[in-house]
């Protein structure tokens, strides 16, 4: 079982270690270090790996991740409010092993086609231990509590591990679109 935690500064060191693992594996898209350009009324936000060494800057990242669940939080046009959880190893509850997020809506064309409601990533050194599958299992009823009747969850065509994770949580394959498998999971909302 994996623990889902609200992002918190106690994960500072292990979050950065995980970011380094993702980058070493060539998986920068999962490193959790945000860089979003200004767009319309959104002023943009940029974090760097080096800057996040500073506790204050890491606290700013944590505040951004927690605040992203607020419908009125600043975000690029068309982006959805999103609740983020950080996965922790139950044997070491301050050890960051990955993240999972729930987008509150998928009204944006990119989310409705290939992005979906849920995104997750497990650091390379913590894979093959069931963390992603268990995190997704825990998020399904949280989506139901938000009134989301079914979740769109996608993965790359060649990501067999992610496909198994989604299928183990009731994902029904709808088909493929633009290099992604599209699955739907009923939440019983």
Automatic annotation (TrEMBL):
Signal peptide: none
Domain N-acetyltransferase: start-end pairs: 20-189
CDD domains reported for this sequence: NAT_SF
Domain of life the protein comes from: Bacteria
Keyword vocabulary terms for this entry: Transferase
UniProt-listed Gene3D superfamilies: 3.40.630.30
Molecular function per GO: acyltransferase activity, transferring groups other than amino-acyl groups
InterPro entries xref list: Acyl_CoA_acyltransferase, GNAT_dom
Protein name (Swiss-Prot/TrEMBL): Acetyltransferase (GNAT) domain-containing protein
Organism: Pedococcus dokdonensis
